[in-house]
Amino acid sequence: MPQLDVSGQRATRDGILRFDQSGSCGMRLKLLGIENTTDDHIQGTKLWILHLGILECDDGWFIRAANASSLSNPNPVSKRRRLVMLGILIEHPTEGLILYETGGGEDYPNLAGTHVQDVFSRVDYDKSMNLDEQIALTGHKIEDVKMVIIGHLHLDHSGGLDHFRGKNIPVYVHELELKHAFYSVATKTDLGVYLPHYLTFDINWVPFHGAYYEIAPGINLHHAPGHTPGLTIMQVNLKESGTWIFTSDQYHVKENFQDSIPQGWLARDHDAWVRSHQMIKGLQKRTNAKVLLGHCLDTIKELGVDFAPTTYK
């Protein structure tokens, strides 16, 4: 039988198995991504929350059975909701400037088309919400970005990838998301939420694989399928403000996360969504993380966090 080398480490599908000497038992096992703590932060990492515009949509897209009629109320009022589009900018001491998601892009209404703009309507937009303008609030330029991470490739999270066409900037996305997005556009099976103008061959796509990926010291990606096959949440461990979890559209609004109410018409794989929900709830409990949802203005207010230029360390 091979001997276990407790001084080393070996890769697994979900991360790294690390072994060290501690306690009376003489060995402690830590499976990164399963038993993550906030100890793996890197001194000097900074984070900004970018405001990339407001969408107004029917509640039925985001909350299971919202606005549904009944025998006693066959014509209920169709409640609508205002949602924020977010980007997350990270200044990392060894990896440089990292961008998580890009919003819908400056020309969202025209590129999305009349029907999509009517359903997922961008409202009250001004130039200050452009991706490059938001990055400028942090003291950086969009040209300074060294790495892009995409939680999922729907148009309101990836439309800003136009800025990175023809560049050699790596754009990280889960392999299942990349395959599904290109397939959906090519076959027109899910066209509308995925659009061809940013799914191009002149972007430096870098797929990652499996359930967990430590993309940089203190920055961990977790595969969370359900809303889309390759959706990925991002965990960032900061020294002063602690752990943050950015969920992309695993959760659109607080009812999805706080009350465990599944998504509405935008749901794809319900069983996978439930499993991802359980994983994120456990991760949040272990790390005492602040959880920022994909579009929820209420959650941002409840957490008391601010948009750029406010800096978190």
TrEMBL record:
<protein>
    <recommendedName>
        <fullName>Metallo-beta-lactamase domain-containing protein</fullName>
    </recommendedName>
</protein>
<keyword id="KW-0862">Zinc</keyword>
<dbReference type="Pfam" id="PF00753">
    <property type="entry name" value="Lactamase_B"/>
</dbReference>
<keyword id="KW-0378">Hydrolase</keyword>
<comment type="similarity">
    <text>Belongs to the metallo-beta-lactamase superfamily.</text>
</comment>
<dbReference type="InterPro" id="IPR001279">
    <property type="entry name" value="Metallo-B-lactamas"/>
</dbReference>
<keyword id="KW-0479">Metal-binding</keyword>
<dbReference type="GO" id="GO:0046872">
    <property type="term" value="F:metal ion binding"/>
</dbReference>
<dbReference type="GO" id="GO:0016787">
    <property type="term" value="F:hydrolase activity"/>
</dbReference>
<dbReference type="InterPro" id="IPR036866">
    <property type="entry name" value="RibonucZ/Hydroxyglut_hydro"/>
</dbReference>
<dbReference type="InterPro" id="IPR051013">
    <property type="entry name" value="MBL_superfamily_lactonases"/>
</dbReference>
<feature type="domain" description="Metallo-beta-lactamase">
    <location>
        <begin position="84"/>
        <end position="295"/>
    </location>
</feature>
